[in-house]
Amino acid sequence: MALEHERIWSFDAAWPPDDTEVSCLGTNLHQTTITNLRWGLNEAARANQAPGQPLPWTALSQMLLLGCRHPDGSYYRTYPDVFVYLAQVDGDRGSLAVDADGPPALVIEVLSEGTFEVDIDHIRGKGYSYARAGVPEYIVLDPTGHFLAQGVAAWQLIDQQYRGWDPGQDGRWYSDQLAVAIALEGAQAVVYLPDGQRMLAEGEV
Prior knowledge:
Layout: H1 21-24, H2 28-47, E1 58-60, E2 64-69, E3 75-78, E4 82-85, E5 95-97, H3 98-101, E6 106-110, H4 116-120, H5 126-133, E7 137-141, E8 152-158, E9 161-164, E10 173-174, E11 181-185, E12 188-192
Parallel strand pairs: 2-5, 6-7
Antiparallel strand pairs: 1-4, 2-3, 4-6, 7-8, 8-9, 10-11, 11-12
């Protein structure tokens, strides 16, 4: 994985640090990407909803996810940019917990200056924590290309470890967990249905 920026960190038992309101903030593009992913995934859920049945999944953004662990087993607080549960999540929920609700089916992190090292670290960072929690699919996006030259890196959980998840020939990542495909087209994150229908983005609705 080619990174445009590299830093040397002094790791300790507190790595990765707790997410905070400040650390979750980003540029307008960062926040727009998160909004478009959440919106697109939720619209795709509505498109896949059977008559009279609850939504097949719920995409959430920057809500508290409890139950992620450091390599030493201690817990820390994380607010994934986008995460998806295979259920209709009550709108009054303020947090979810891996121990009580199970792991999300998919987590997407949008890289930023303050978080990219944590997000891509599979040894001590969120890549490790999400794999340990049992998250089947993990994607990181960099719409700017500043931190990840190829713009997207994705993994699927195999034998409790993340293995590279390759896109289809059309450059979209087809989820095994949800009936969607995700792509980065220029600087815009896009959600597709398996039949190729593109979910609308902010400004197109």
